[in-house]
Amino acid sequence: MSYQHIRLPPDGEKVAVKNGKLRVPDQPILGFVEGDGIGADITAAALRVWDAAVAKAYRGKRKVRWCELYMGEKAAGIYQGDYFPAETIAAIKDLTVAIKGPLTTPVGGGFRSLNVSLRQEMDLYACVRPVRYFEGVPSPLRRPEEVDVVIFRENTEDVYAGIEYPSGGDDNKKLAKFLREEMRAEFFDDAGLGIKPISPFGSKRLVRKAIEYALERERASVTLVHKGNIMKYTEGAFRNWGYEVATQEFRDHVVTEDELWNEHDGSMPAGKILIKDRIADIMFQLLLLRPAEFDVIATSNLNGDYLSDAAAAEVGGIGIAPGANISDDIAVFEATHGTAPKYANQNKVNPSSLLFSGVMMLEYINWREAAQLIDDAFVKVLADKTVTYDFARLMDDATTVSTSGFADALIGKINP
Ligand code: NAP
Fold this sequence. Notes:
single chain; alpha/beta; twelve-stranded mixed sheet; 14 helices; binds NADP nicotinamide-adenine-dinucleotide phosphate
């Protein structure tokens, strides 16, 4: 495939997916999108740390061949105002693994979120957000070490599907008339209208992915989080379809919470995963007060959006939380925070969210040794209290460093 502005590194090879298995060469070409706002600063810093860890772990035998891809404001400058170039999408599909910084989305108008478009365009149906505690990270919890959850958020449906009709528009009026006259719905005049589609297909593949993950990583439970007491036929259906997948497709591996109490006297049979569900609002409280009870979480799009950031706040905030959006063959890793425009190009913010998204990416391609080196270096740098401004304001006696200074400190621990 030939590209207009994208340059594939000549000495690299593409990662391939064969029969559902990832095949990773020693010199894989991985895509990266710098992102808007603080994207340039955090990407430059993280690239140096990932490369240092890979070089140290494999002593030159393995090396990532980075390929820059363009989205957002940088793309608009290169592709005559196109923020979402078709060749970037083609390249991500071709390379199958990529990582991206944050992208700007205007509120209440302008173009549609590039992040949402990307997820839908490639059908990246699962947003995966591991939230765990690293020693030394400032936390509002008394026992932050109990937080170790992986949130699987459905990415393509729900109120994020983009089926919205603005107040006063012709389509809005048409839909309002239909809802009132044909469906006997009641709502105030001129209400903006949005549709919340949640399907068995979308719900089941998300829950399936979460259970497969839990099995592979030997996690203890999968919790289905929903607001089914109020939205019975969307959120409630998500819950029901989740249990269906669990009990029909993973029967030998799972026990539901009902079965736990009715058949096993509350004591979990060895080697099985507990499937339970919680209503979204109480889940926020539980994750704060009793985080040890949760492990893998599977939830719908909007719940997952809120819950991921709330969980991240318990162990350092979105400046550190990593994420990935995955389909059955494509994986796009991403910083979970936004572009923080007031800090753009100040070399100030915390690069850890992108950094740890890269750690997830290294784990995904099975380069676990390099991933571990970064985890270990992070704990050591935190123990020295060498941190960016966001952590420094939560810690006593910290030394505040810049984005690049934080990367230097990590590299110094990787190569002491
Ligand atoms: P934001 O960019 O995440 O920033 C909100 C605040 O979070 C910042 O002011 C800063 O807090 C803190 N923060 C974010 N990243 C940080 C980092 N790396 N290190 C330290 N602190 C960090 O959220 P926003 O201001 O609501 O959104 C700005 C733009 O980003 C919008 O266009 C939005 O649509 C977009 N966005 C993109 C993504 C994405 O690409 N995945 C996700 C969310 C938002 P303090 O001011 O307290 O220091």
